[in-house]
Amino acid sequence: MQVHSQSLPQLSPALLAKLSQPKLTPEKIQERLSYIIEKDRVPDDLPRRFLEAFAAVLQHTNYRQVIDNYARIPARCANCSCACQIYQQTHDPKDVPCYRSNLLLEAYRRHFTLRGIVEGHLKGTPYLTDDLILEMAESYYHCTACRRCSLECPLGIDHGLVTHIARYVLSEIGLVPRALVISTREQLEGATHNTSAIPWAAIKDTLEFLEEEIKDDKGIDLTFPVDHEGAEFLFFAPVSDYLMEAETLMGIATVFYAAGDQNRWTISSQFLDGINYGLFYNDWVLEKCLRLEVDQLKRLGAQKILIGECGHASRSAKAFMKTFGGGKKAPPVVNIMEYTWRAWKDGKIRLRPGAIDERVTYHDPCNIARTGWIIEQPRELLRAFCSDFVEMEPHGVWNLCCGGGGGTVSVDEIRPYRTGVTGVKKAEQIRATGAHYVVAPCANCKKQLREVCEDNGLSDVEVVGLHDLIYRALILD
Amino acid sequence: MPKFTQGDVTIDVDEDGFMLEPEQWNEEVAKALATTEGVEDLTEAHWKVVNYLREYYLQFGVAPMIRKLCKETGFKLKEIYDLFPSGPAKGACKVAGLPKPTGCV
After folding, report:
1. DSSP B97
2. Whole-angstrom Cα distance, residue B9 to residue B26?
């Protein structure tokens, strides 16, 4: 049958207006995504490059199955909106998780399914425009990837995963927050091999300083074990702890000392950074960081990977080690809270009841609690030595995000957004508990919660790590 | 490349206003950078923090651990925030001519 031009459906004026929009200039792109791209790397020809990168990701990963499955679901019921603390704050329909996910899914439907391609040709609707790609970049970095919405989706869409895939594709064409790329570049290619660019000499100086501090506080001679071959646990802290979180590290070292496990753990001098921003934006980076951890494990003949107080470092290792770190031979991954809880349960360490009098509450890092991985252990520990422990509501699997998840906490440019939009619900939650100490066993959450408290008038709140308080409560004979 | 100019001082800075070539740092530069951090007058207390950061940076190539900074200068963390409103890692380091800290700092 011949198709006459008259019989073709007419384009709506709105769509025509959209199609006749001029391409965005590099300056315009730069303006809209100021924190997302490096100034000298403004990408051009965005739609073509986006589709090429998308096609490559679909072809070379297992994500095609997922995306294809999700794309068959309309995903418009917006049940997820009541779980999203960002939507609850802004009430902007663009912040509904399934609206966000549909940005990528529409691109898939239009360009990678038969129906979409045929319809597109007949109607002459090029779906992807510069504008839409920019909207994706903005939208997917407004999401903190806390995955609370995935608990609500009646059709089982993991919107956090869609955010991850979208950011993966965007990062392949150079759209990724500058702060994350700079840190990752230092970790993978720099001289120091860590995201905070701390040379080994400085780490060594810091460890010696911490040893002196522990001696002053506790009167014990303890050394941080470095490059001990054959230790069971190889320890990876988020490297920022070596600048920011003295007490967390002191607490961890003292727990090992008190448990008599001084020989069971070690730190590698060559690569000691557990931070893995790949989880936030790119699977190549994710894989490279995990392989570096496994390399050190083999070098030192250790058996298990032990991650310090860090949510994303823990989940990236726990969830992806099998995929990227050696398949069935992949080493087990343990979080420091699991180790400490086990040592306490086995009676190897003792905690002084009532050691902390002030009111204490516990913040679940999304990357640790959303899947139900570690929820009760830190609470049991805290109840053992805090006389006034209270819960935030909701908590555990249903916790609210600190507001700086998904790597957004590292982007200083969006602090007003993080503390004024995404973190507001958290601030209200903390205020309602009346707690003095908020225990957040995650470097990301700690930084974000401190800024949230500062910007939301919670000046009496102190944000600490779990081991900061354990350090004070440990009974040393 | 953004430049930062104030009075006689002209230096190359990054997008966040941190020095790109820390070896160009001197007291005049510190005073000029301090104004961008809302510090109009560098008092003796400010200099104590700045000089310690500077010294540590020249020796180790990075800022010291915050607890160490507090201990060596004798200031509590809150007092450092009073001196440099955006804190030790951002404000004080910027005035001392250190590069912007990266990672989860």
Report:
1. T
2. 10
Instruction: Please give the CATH topology (third level) of the domain spanning B3-95.
Output: Arc Repressor Mutant, subunit A (1.10.10)
Decide if domain A13-176 falls under CATH 3.90.1150. Answer: no
B104 is an active site residue: yes
| Residue ranges per structural domain of chain A | 13-176, 192-343, 349-473
Q: What is the signed CA dihedral for B32, B36, B41, B44, rounded to 10 degrees?
A: -80
The neighbour count for residue A128, using CB atoms within 10 Å, is: 18
Q: How confident is the model at residue A3 (pLDDT cuts 50, 70, 90)?
A: very low
Statement: A349-473 belongs to CATH 3.40.50? yes
Residue linked to tokens 């004070």 = A472
- Yes or no, beta carbons of A196 and B62 under 8 Å apart: yes
Q: Which residues of A touch B60 (CB under 8 A)?
A: 199, 201-202, 205
pLDDT digits (tens, 9 = 90+) for A290-337: 999 999 999 999 999 999 999 999 999 999 999 999 899 999 999 999
Is residue B59 scored above 50 in pLDDT? Answer: yes
Contact residues, chain A, for B22 at CB < 8 Å: none
Specify whether the CB–CB gap between A366 and A448 falls below 8 A. Answer: no
pLDDT for residue A348 is more than 70: yes
State the angle between helix axes of A200-218 and B66-73 in degrees (0 to 180), rounded to the nearest 10: 60
Domain locations along chain B: 3-95
Tell me if A427 sits within 8 A of A456, measured CB to CB. yes
